[in-house]
Amino acid sequence: MPYTDLLESALCIATQAGERIMAIYRSGDFTVTHKGDDSPLTQADLAAHRYIADELARLAPEIPLLSEEDADIAYSTRSTWTRYWLVDPLDGTREFIRRNPDFTVNIALIVDGYPQLGVVHAPALGISWIAAEGVGCWRIENGERRALKTRRKPELPVFVISQSHQNPALAEFLSRAPKHEAVSRGSSLKFCLIAEGLADLYPRTGPISEWDSGAGQCVAEQAGAQVLRLPARTRLGYNEKASLINPLFAVIGDPSADWDAVLASIRA
Ligand SMILES: Nc1ncnc2c1ncn2[C@@H]1O[C@H](COP(=O)(O)O)[C@@H](OP(=O)(O)O)[C@H]1O
Ligand SMILES: [Mg+2]
């Protein structure tokens, strides 16, 4: 199936998963438990996971799935995958619980270790960002599609940072960084802000998992950004090791600009 059709199907699945999340969000009828890594879990995460897993299996039964809520798959098994769905059914669970709208549904297709298709859907904002290699990238709101393009680095760049996970390394980086404006957003929306040309750098100093970045990386890259692991400055890749935690990385909207000093000063 060409990515054009697969992308529309993935968008439809993410949107429908978002409806299920919003029904629980509006009702306020959910309980919060904590997983082994102490991250919160609600009925909304699980309802979205079950819906997405069923629908992706119907859409493309030959493509395996790695979801945050079904991630216990041995590396010896997944290292044989040449392509797979990488899903975070509800990214920004902390925001969801606090009734902050910065949470997203994330569906990525990883091929040979890199994202080739990505859908980020923010159900409480009513906005989706979609991208696929060879197809294009768009922001969708109220049925209106706008092509995404990162911007040239401005005089006063905007740095977009985490809302719920700010660590001393980030504070240290920001205090030493050249003049900038800092904006904080939850979940994978940080990648989308860069893709829209509303922000210029996303420094990720705290750990996040591969499902937190796959779809957002595709959206940002297709819009012209680079997602670079640090300090190596090579493209962030997937399914390369037993751990599913990403290395330190940064997203830059304008790769033609000089980011040398800034990237060198981002530490874990
Ligand atoms: N120490 C850690 N290890 C792995 N993932 C972490 C983490 N700290 C935060 N995250 C994940 O990062 C995501 C939030 O990112 P941000 O801080 O940019 O909003 C959350 O995803 P979920 O909400 O899907 O659990 C959270 O679980
Ligand atoms: Mg997540």
TrEMBL record:
Belongs to the inositol monophosphatase superfamily. CysQ family. The keyword GTP-binding does not apply. CDD domains: CysQ (cd01638). This is 3'(2'),5'-bisphosphate nucleotidase CysQ. Gene3D superfamilies: 3.40.190.80, Fructose-1,6-Bisphosphatase, subunit A, domain 1 (3.30.540.10). Mg(2+) 2 binds at D88, L90, D91, D212. GO terms for molecular function: 3'(2'),5'-bisphosphate nucleotidase activity; magnesium ion binding. Pfam families: Inositol_P. It is found in: Cell inner membrane. PANTHER family: 3'(2'),5'-BISPHOSPHATE NUCLEOTIDASE 1. It catalyses: adenosine 3',5'-bisphosphate + H2O = AMP + phosphate. Mg(2+) 1 binds at E68, D88, L90, D91, D212.
